[in-house]
Structure formats: C-alpha cells, structure tokens
Amino acid sequence: MATLKxxxxxxxxxxxxxxxxxxxxxYRSSISTHLQKIGLGTSIDEYTGLWNWGxxxxxxxxxxxxxxxIVVLGDSWVADVDTGVEKEMGRxxxxxxxxxxxxxCTTFINxxxxxxxxxxxxxxxxxxxxxxxxxxxxxxxxxxASIESPDMSLLPDFAAQVQQFIAEPLPTKxxxxxxxxxxxxxxxxxxxxxxxxxxxxRTDATVQELFDxxxxxYTHYAQNLSVPVTVFxxxxxxxxxxxxxxxxxxxxxxxxxxxxxxxxxxxxxxPSSTAEQQKNAAYLTSRWNQQLENGLGxxxxxxPMAANPAKFPNSKSGGDLPKGTDEKNVTAEEPPVIEKDAFxxxxxxxxxxxxxxxxxxxxxxxxxxxxGKGTVIFNEVYEPCLHxxxxxxxxxxxxxxxxxxxxxxxxxxxxxxxxxxxxxxxSGIGQEIGxxxxxxxxxxxxxxxxxxxxxxxxxxxxx
Length: 463
Description:
The chain is about 35% helix and about 10% strand. By secondary structure, the protein is of the alpha/beta class.
C-alpha cells in the first residue's frame, strides 16, 4: 500500500505540473473553493449480443413527457447499472441521474454504455470511445501500441449513441432537453500507449470528431426539438424565443490517476515503458481538455440554425404596423435562431482536491491556500472498494467477484472499482453540476457577463 501511495502521489504531481486550465471558463467545485465496443460501424445493432451493456439502449422514467428531460451519452462515468447484484454492491447512481434530481427533470434517457462489472480479468479494461474508427486506425498504425486492439471489446461510440437518440420518437408535448456528455477518458487511456507525436495527432482528430457529432446532435435538436420558452427582454417585457441547445460536458480526468492504471493496465511493450505511458497520459489529458475548451468557444460562437418558422413565426403582418407606415418599406424580422450553449464542469479538480486533501492530512501538513485543513470526505482515496486481495487481507464474508473482493463500506471509498468513482463522489459531482445548471452558469452566460451579448443558461419551456 505504501508503494501504491508513493506512485499515486507522483502521478498527481506530474498531472498538476502538466495541466493548463482556462480558469475564467471553468466552474470550480465547492470543495475546490474550500480546499483550494472498438468497432468501425455506427449502428447500435452492431454492438448487441456481445456483453450485457447496462443501460446502453436508453431508459425513460416517469411517463416520458414533461417540461425537462436529461439525455445522457457517453461512458461508464455516466452509465447507470445500479440493478441486481450491482445494487447490492453499492456502486451507486451515476452523477447524471443525481443531476436529473437536482434540476427536477421529468424524463431521464440514458444511452451511455459500460463494460460489465465482472468482465475483468477475462477481458482487459475498456470503455466507450469518441470514435471507434479513429481509435482502431490509431492503434493499428502505431509501432508502440500495447493495447490489445484486435481483441478489444465492442461498445457503441459517440456516433452510434447519437444515431440511436435521433431514431427515438419525438416528444408529443413541449419538452426542453439538456444533453449530458462524458467522453475522452478511454480515448486518452488508449492513446497513451502510442508514440507521442502520433498520439497528439489522434487526440486532436478525436476532439474534432466529438464536435462533428455534437453538431449533428445540435442540428437534430434545432430542426425537431427546440420549444418556445418565455424570457424577459432588456426592457423587462416578456417575449417568446426558441429554447437553446444545452450540453453538460465535464473536464476529463487523467486516467493514470485511477487505481486501475497501476493495477489492471497491460504492461507496456518496448520501446515504450510504463513511465513513458504515464507521462503521455498526463500530457494528452491536458491537451484534450485544452482542445475541448478552445473548441467549445469556437463551436458556441459558430453560426446557429434558424428556428422552424412553423413553431416561431417571425414576420410582422400589416395589422401590426403603426398607422402611416408604408408596408413596402418594412423589412421582415430576422427569423429567431437556436443558440448553442454548454455547461463546462471541472470534474478533474473535484477528484484531485479530495485526494490531495487526504494526502496532506496524512502527512499533517497544509499550504497557504488551506489545503490540508479541510474536511476529509473519504477514509480511502487510493484503494477501490472492489479490489484484488492484498497481502494479509482476510476474505471473511466479503463478496468475491472473479477474484476481486468487495469492501464492507463502499461509501468510504473515493473509487468504487479500478476505473470508476464511488456513490458518494458521484452524488457530490451531480449536486455541483445541478447547481451550475440551476444557476444558469453556462459558458454563454459567463461570456455575456464579461463581454456582453446574448444571455445563456437554461430557460424552462412555456407549457
């Protein structure tokens, strides 16, 4: 355990030194404030019959209608598999589901997928990728690749999940939609095994693919899903406008910070090395987040689509004109547009703050910002609840899952398993993102306060 802590501490130090952040665009967590399937197709049908993929085919709660719904796409960090045996294990709800409760959503649909909890060690660790094709091409084209690409499990990538959502029936009542997206973790995890220059190139290409698919999702929303919402204009008068496209995107956490990096990742093959891959992971995580942040700015400010004229009439009739006005001299109003907006949350900092606080308190030290003097949320921040038995550990009545033991108190562990956080951490993240959304602290809203312009933030539909 001591060796694990030392290596873990070195990993965190490397990440902190290599990470760059656009502070003005990030919503810092309250903890931070106080502590200062690899396949080539895009059809979901191609992924069935391989493993039992949790929620991957979509789920609705309630009657499927209402004022606000959450649509989740991505990986295990937002997938819900809290049923049957896994419910007894204490895995907990996803932070996306907690977000749903925090903002009182009436419909929750989840397309995220995850590797089954009992897949390891028969299958190597894996998860949802942004693009299966880009990933496969990258792994097969690099001489340094050590991930077993031909045998990697098939999970629906972002494009497949987007197409599955688009194929869903449209709501029959006005329903505002917030999309939740969790991607990048497993992309970086795999790219870390490549030669560095090629890994950087593929990281950039993958982030671009994320925005290409996000634009497809936005186009579908603008054409079919935007609903009228009532807002107040600059003069305090009520006006009806189309609802904006909103997406929640968290910052990616360095995969080498998780216990599974040391415990379950395949050994690096020469000429690569474990240390080199760990360094690659830190730099590629930083690159991914930087590209994502820059890309969000460009994407949000890109040309929006006009709203459906049938839903949002935009031309004045002759009866609306003041007396004496020549109708020939009147130009029709510009049609309303569907704005793009995003809630960008620093999930990585939330996790890092918890780990660093625990480390400093163990050493009985603190720094000028207050780190080391805060509240310790978890008793264990290194070892996951579901873990391989260590020397001297007695099995007792612990649940044994393919040679891994389940701890007796999952809520006291930051990590539930080698690559996923536990129930309490998920709940904390969901609550913080819930406040972010409820307070309307979107990127467009932040920019409007700083530089002027259109106001962002979530606006509930007029029903």
